[in-house]
Amino acid sequence: MPAITESRYLVQASAKNRHWHSSDREKMCIRCGEPKPLGEFYSYPYTTRQGKRSARYESRCRECSKERRRERSLANPGMDAELSRRWRSDNPDYCAAYSKEYRSNESGRKTKARLQRLRKARMRSGSGDDPSIRAIYAEALHVETLVASCPVFDIPELGKKMHVDHIMPLARGGLHVPSNLQILPAGLNMRKGAKCPQ
Ligand SMILES: [Zn+2]
Questions:
Q1: Lesser CB count within 10 Å: N end or C end of the chain?
Q2: How far is the C-alpha of 63 from the C-alpha of 70, rounded, in Å?
Q3: What are 164's strand-pairing partners?
Q4: Cβ proximity of 31 and 61 under 8 Å
Q5: Ligand 1 centre and the CA of 142: distance in Å?
């Protein structure tokens, strides 16, 4: 009887399609207690011991999950930043590899290009040909020649070059104006990077 065979096949096919991870499969949220489709839960891919790709789902739905994170970060302001700082200092190799990879990949190059454009645009918008700004750069050169000929000043970490540094970095919205400029030894400036002033 072809009709039965066909309908049995359909049942099997649909059972197969309703795989555990099918996004319309429902899962109970442990916080709001509502059954919601799997797509409403954050998931994380992982590889099983058998080498298969699978996914883990959070036990709270997206909404409850966001709400919980919001409450926790309100209860402990700065905790996220502190945890992340601690993790970074515990895993320097991972971070170095990550930044190296990021700098060389597509989005890293884009970020770098975007920041450079931003910096140039800010340089142009802040009085580029201001005599007082030129004086600061000239002063930096002057200090550099003094340092170069000084037998006492020799601190490898500071370097012998002088940079004109933006106190509030251009990348963070600082302006190319005299009040935002300072002369810094290159070594200090490189370490400062685009960090905000303390
Ligand atoms: Zn929920």
A1: C
A2: 11
A3: 183
A4: yes
A5: 65
> What DSSP line would sit under 153-188, residue for residue?
---TTT-S-EEEEESS-GGGT--SSGGGEEEEEHHH
pLDDT digits (tens, 9 = 90+) for 117-170: 777 766 665 555 678 888 888 888 888 888 888 877 777 777 778 888 888 887
Confidence of residue 185 (pLDDT cuts 50, 70, 90): confident
Chain centre to alpha carbon of residue 119: 19
| Alpha helices (H) in the chain, listed in sequence order | 2-17, 62-75, 79-90, 92-104, 106-125, 131-149, 186-192
* CA 27 to ligand 1 centroid distance, Å: 10
Give the C-alpha distances (Å, rounded to integers) separating 149 from 127, 142, 158.
33, 11, 15
